[in-house]
Amino acid sequence: MTEQHLSRRRLLGTAGAAGAAGLAAGAGGGFMGAAVAQDDVTALATVGSTAVAFHGRHQAGITTPMQARGHLVAFDLAPGTGRTGAAALLRRWSRTAERLAAGRSADGTTDAARDAGPASLTVTFGFGRTFFDRTGLADRRPTALDPLPDFSSDALDAGRSNGDLWLQIGADDPLVAFDALRALQKQTGDSARVRWQMNGFNRTPGATARPMTTRNLMGQVDGTNNPKPGEKDFDRRIFVPPGGDPAWMAHGSYAVVRRIRMLLDDWDELPAPEQEKVIGRRKQDGAPLSGGHETTPVDLDRRDAAGRLLVPANAHARVSAPETNGGAAMLRRPFSFHDGLREDGAPDAGLLFVCWQSDPLTGFVPVQRKLDRGDALSRFIRHEASALFAVPGGAAPGEYVGQRLLES
């Protein structure tokens, strides 16, 4: 490796690694409130120098503060790859992700991110239900990977759903994210082929005068009530506990991925007060219609002088609230997307919804069932792709992600 190539991320050495920007705070239920609100937003001058450790109890990219750019990619293993080939692939990917996350060079990079720092780069690995059949490990497949139920609002494209393997790549610099994506795709070789790829974005850290919860493409403050790391029940809701079944999933999580297209032209025609009734929050500042400020708990019982509920019965904030779903909650960490215009001229845009939970049957499923039956937001969105992945715990130094499954 040349000295010139080794210095492609020199910013890390000159600015100093700031370390992870802190754990995320933020979102309650459903489609809205889907972003992870950030307690600490990195100043623009240090965006490139911030590094997130690859190794740890949990994989990076779950509680990591939301990044400005994301790539979600699913792969299908090639015939004959099997368990040995899958292990070799995960070993290559883990080695590359570790180097790039630390701001170092790796084989297969494009030099697109030359001279950039790590920019909070994370790579998160997951296994789909079919991975276990293809690798001869069907007896070790978690029951939590059972197929999600059908929902009446689904209009799913099978070609953009599911997959054997899944990568979530996030970074605060688009070129850093692309460089990692390209390197990992090239290292796949003949072991697997891309099944689908989705590209997303969020607000860049430091883009606002003060730390603020991000907005989605509908213009709504999005991410106020996410479960917060440090809450007494956070780990129980989001991560598989040690001693659980299967053992190799200890400290891991389950990711539900949904491509949700927003009918933005229809939404924009709705007056702002009506938009607020659909969501149950004020558009200006994200405060609940029941009163207070953005982080004020929603008062689902409060009524106006005429006896009408301030938060309508079918408002998204009400239907998705943990209080109306038996306490079901998940950590939402999405990206917005815009893939140009459709044939009818409408924007092909919306949310790459990613949510994390210790068990999708107690997290995503009950909330989505409730939304499916009576959410006012449903008329403005379309669920077009869906996938579920088992995301094992983080790799210790010297390990690769998934080693405890593939080599035990």
TrEMBL record:
Name assigned to this protein: Deferrochelatase
Location within or outside the cell: Cell envelope
Dyp-type peroxidase C-terminal domain span: 213-395
Family annotation (Pfam families): Dyp_perox_C, Dyp_perox_N
InterPro entries hit by this protein: Dimeric_a/b-barrel, Dyp_perox_C, Dyp_perox_N, Dyp_peroxidase, EfeB/EfeN, TAT_signal
Keywords from the named record: Heme, Iron, Lyase, Metal-binding, Oxidoreductase, Peroxidase, Signal
PANTHER family with a match to the protein in the record: DEFERROCHELATASE, DEFERROCHELATASE/PEROXIDASE
Family to which the UniProt record says this protein belongs: Belongs to the DyP-type peroxidase family.
Catalysed reactions, as listed in the record: heme b + 2 H(+) = protoporphyrin IX + Fe(2+)
Main subcellular localisation: other
Regions of compositional bias (Polar residues) in chain numbering: 211-227
CC cofactor note: Binds 1 heme b (iron(II)-protoporphyrin IX) group non-covalently per subunit.
NCBIfam families: Dyp_perox_fam, tat_substr_1
Function text: Involved in the recovery of exogenous heme iron. Extracts iron from heme while preserving the protoporphyrin ring intact.
Domain of life: Bacteria
Keyword Metal-binding: yes
Species assigned in the record: Streptomyces meridianus
A molecular function (GO) term: lyase activity
